[in-house]
Structures are given as C-alpha cells and as structure tokens.
Design goal:
It catalyses: IMP + diphosphate = hypoxanthine + 5-phospho-alpha-D-ribose 1-diphosphate; GMP + diphosphate = guanine + 5-phospho-alpha-D-ribose 1-diphosphate. It is built from 3 helices and 9 strands. The protein is of the alpha/beta class. The model has no long low-confidence stretch (mean pLDDT 90).
Length: 168
C-alpha cells in the first residue's frame, strides 16, 4: 500500500472545500445527501466544515461487487427527506466511472430538487462517456489506481484508514 494523501492533507482540502461550499450556498437552505457507505468519513468531516445550517440525509447505492464495478446501480436504502424543492449536495468518496453520481443526480432531478450538485473526496482522471464528467467540488484529482482509506474500500475493508492509499 502506498499512501497518496495523508490525513493532514485531507483535512486541509476539507477545510477549503467547506469554505467554498459555504460561500456558494450562503442564503440558501442546503441538504447534504451522503452516498453510503463510502461517503461516510468525507461527509462527516465536510458537514462540520460547512458554516451553514444543514439538513443531512443518506442514500445507500452500490455499483461494485468486491473490487469490480457491475455497471448497474442498486438502491439499498431510500431517503428520509423529500428532495422536492431542496438544494441538494451529493457527497461521495470517489468519482470513478461517474455512472453512480450521474444516476443519483438524475434521481434527484426527477424528484423535483431545486438544484443538484456534487462533491467528492477523490476524482479519478478517466474518460466518462456515460457518467458524470466532473464533480462540482473535488478534494484531490488522481490517476486510475485502486484506492483505499478514508471511506474507500476493497471488498468492505480499509474504509477506516485515516489516509488515502493505492492498493497494488
């Protein structure tokens, strides 16, 4: 395992993203929706870095089995809050193929959200012909290596690491 982003680097990016998001949404009512389980660490830290009153909800979706993408999206849990009329910021740990985030953005759009934006901890440098091209806010941009830590997993392991590492 090679550490790519240390916990102090992650904390610095979270603080900067929180400040940017605070300014963008100032005067608006914001709802954070975390994609579980991967987005949990990122969402907990980012929510505390956003200096606004927030509604917080979560949605469990999956497109991976083990370490491979299935190409299909499975909804494993649903929202508690009605997204209609809300400013939604979707939080996830990684933008990989972009299909999960695109599908979730479409889901909120169809349910009448006032606005839908995205924030991810890591965005991989990949072509995304069928997915969301880029997140609105990104912690780090990286290559295509398989990553673990800070919510990123390999078959549900390593999510609890305080750093982000490449699993080779």
């Amino acid at each position: 395992m090679e550490i790519l982003y240390r916990s102090d680097e992650i904390a610095g990016r979270i603080a900067a993203m929180g400040a940017e998001i605070t300014e963008y949404y100032r005067g608006k009512e914001l709802t954070l929706v975390t994609l579980m389980t991967g987005g949990l660490c990122f969402a907990a830290d980012l929510a505390r870095a956003i200096d606004l009153p927030l509604w917080i909800d979560s949605l469990a979706v999956a497109s991976y089995r083990g370490c491979r993408s299935t190409g299909e999206l499975e909804f494993r849990s649903m929202l508690k809050l009605d997204p209609a009329g809300r400013e939604i910021l979707i939080l996830d740990e990684v933008l990989d193929s972009g299909t999960t985030l695109k599908c979730v953005c479409d889901y909120f759009g169809k349910r009448g959200a006032a606005g839908v934006r995205t924030a991810v901890m890591v965005e991989k440098r990949l072509p995304r012909p069928n997915g969301l091209a880029h997140a609105d806010w990104t912690g780090f941009v990286t290559g295509t290596r398989y990553l673990v830590g800070y919510g990123l997993d390999a078959d549900e392991l390593y999510r609890n690491l305080p750093h982000i590492a490449a699993l080779d």
